[in-house]
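Hey,
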Amino acid sequence: MKNQWRLVSALVIVLIIVIFAIMNINPVEVSFGFTTVHWPLILVIVMTLILGVAIAVLMATFNSVKTNNEHKQAMAEAQAQIDKLTAENKSLSLRLNNQGKQTRDKRAQPTVTK
């Protein structure tokens, strides 16, 4: 449902831009610093829209890659901590088992009195 609303919103925005662009077909002067060109305003609007979308996609991709890298790093740190705690748990369990074994051995030995 959420994606449907996004699609509808995007289509409405595109429709508004298309109507705006079609209403403005007069030629305009565009200066690039080193040269000046005369293009129809509709072309300037569409090119600006395409550049804006391209920049938004690049920024979203950059943020997504950054977030994925941070997630991978956090997962690696968590796995290292899990491995450390697992090894410590194994060591403590072994110590506990050895202590219990020693206690049982002491009880099982007959006491020798002279």
